[in-house]
Amino acid sequence: MIVARGTEARRRSRGRPGALVAAALLLPIAACTSVVGSRAVPVPPDQRVGAGGTAIVEQVEEEDRPLAVAYAHLRAVDACGLLYDEPAMAKAFPGSRTELVLPATALGTCRAVVAVGEGAGELKYEVQLTLAANAANGRARGAPEQVAGRTALVAKDTKCSFYLDVDEELGLPESSRGLVTPLVEFGMHGGGTPGVDLCGAGRSYLESTAALWSDLPVAGEGRSSPELALATLDPCVPASALLDSPGARIDKPLGTNTCVVEVGRGGGQRIEVSFLIGGDPVGNRPDNAEVVVMGGRDVVKEKLATGCRNEFAWQAGLPLVNESSELVLRYLQLQTVQVKSLSCSGLDESTGKVLAAMGEEPPPAKRVATAPVVLGAHPVPPDAAAVGAPFDPCALGWAAFPEQVRHPRDVVPTLRLPDEGFATSCVYTNHNEGKGSGLFTAEVFWAAPDGFALSRTAPDRTTKVQVAGREAHRVAMNPREGTACAVLVRLERGVAGVQVRQGRFDVDVCQVATTVAEAAVRAAA
């Protein structure tokens, strides 16, 4: 916690916030499978949404259409639902505990991080699934082997890689078979020497999850949660907004999550539109990037060594967090849309067209309470009810904040994993409003009576104050992203706290923290 350990705690503070195109793409996924014989197979989103999606595949060059169809079928699979199975993971890596299950940069991938041991002897392993690996790579690298009742190509270097044939399970037409394959890799997280035979662990894991590979889980059916609005959608749908110039065409597909459009006569400019997942593009922007507003959204513009890229976040309130990094603001995970080209000329105009084609932002991602695979940090952060807190940090809502900093769309706050003695905590973010280019993050938390002592706050930065008639400590800080302040209040039972970091609004940051702390005291009364 920042108030307890200065610079080190600042580094560990976890800020985090919480569709598309044609209206048909936003229809609920009611029937996501078809039946081949007695076996259900995923139906690609392009067929689920009707003529709008199918028309996109038909606009791909005829020779590349089989590949586009294969990607469409893969896009229908729930990547994290297919990858992760807790009993199988425990069997493959005895004594392990799961730290993370999360898509890995590209939607259509998933990775799980597990830890074995404690302290200096701890080892971390990473298992990653990439749905759309090039099948030719597997044929070139791997040796054939029977794994989990199917043919796999197995390659061993620093990782152990399994290329698995699921053409039959996907229900692919003959012309689309043998082009792409799921790739599952078993390796060390962050380097080091493995304490197990990685290929042996991989075989064990795939054997244990054979039933999943025989009946592929479908995205949107609740196998994993929360639901990701962009995961099943074809990026060529918004990219098709760029086809209004003479000679423009959709080029060869690049995976399940990237569409390339050539615009201008003779293919003058290649523009890539990608659906990604990762850190907040505003909070994690490099020093040479700028933030501009397009269509009411913050867009990060970055000039690359070759070309330019524009990126904006999509679907505010996504309750995902990446706890595997120690970097401030790296914990926030958002779905983003990236528009990139080797030529910077006209990229802003193209980005505006893509953004407009995205349509209205969908509601906050749905978390399925009964889902066996919960994406993000593990274990699931406890809410107020689970720890018996006298008030709910998430239920205070934006109404507890001064009007100047409230989120206009009342974006849902997100639970975070407790540390430093705090039992439950909720993070509010508002990076898209206000006059500044910085961030706004507020964390509201509660500590049990024996969990945190006000005396632990740094005395050189602490002022004793009264908040709503109660003893409180106010701690002022200046982390690199802007001013910050924490207010901690002694309740009848335990301690309530509010920590605010912000560089976006023209406000007294300690007054914001005090106002929210007063609301917490009233809620706990």
Distance between the termini: 25 Å
Low-confidence stretches: 1-39, 45-53, 326-330
Structural class: alpha+beta
Separate helix tally:
14
What portion of the residues fall into strands of 2 or more residues?
25-35%
Task: Give the proportion of residues in helices.
Answer: 10-25%
Main β-sheet description: 8 strands, antiparallel
Rounded to the nearest angstrom, the radius of gyration is 24 Å
Mean pLDDT: 83
Overview of the molecule:
- The chain has 525 residues and is an alpha+beta fold.
- 21% of the residues lie in helices and 30% in strands.
- It is built from 14 helices and 26 strands.
- The chain has helices at residues 2-12, 45-48, 51-58, 65-75, 79-83, 86-92, 135-141, 167-170, 198-208, 210-214, 236-239, 347-357, 384-387, 509-524; strands at residues 33-36, 39-42, 96-102, 109-116, 123-134, 143-147, 150-156, 160-164, 180-188, 224-225, 249-250, 258-263, 269-278, 290-294, 297-303, 308-314, 334-341, 373-374, 376-377, 414-415, 422-429, 440-447, 462-467, 470-477, 483-490, 495-502.
- The strands form five sheets. It has an eight-stranded antiparallel sheet with strand order 6-7-8-9-5-4-3-19. The protein has a seven-stranded antiparallel sheet with strand order 11-12-13-17-16-15-14.
- Strand 4 (109-116) and strand 5 (123-134) form a beta hairpin.
- Helix 6 runs antiparallel to helix 9.
- It is globular.
- Residues 1-39, 45-53 and 326-330 have low confidence and may be disordered.
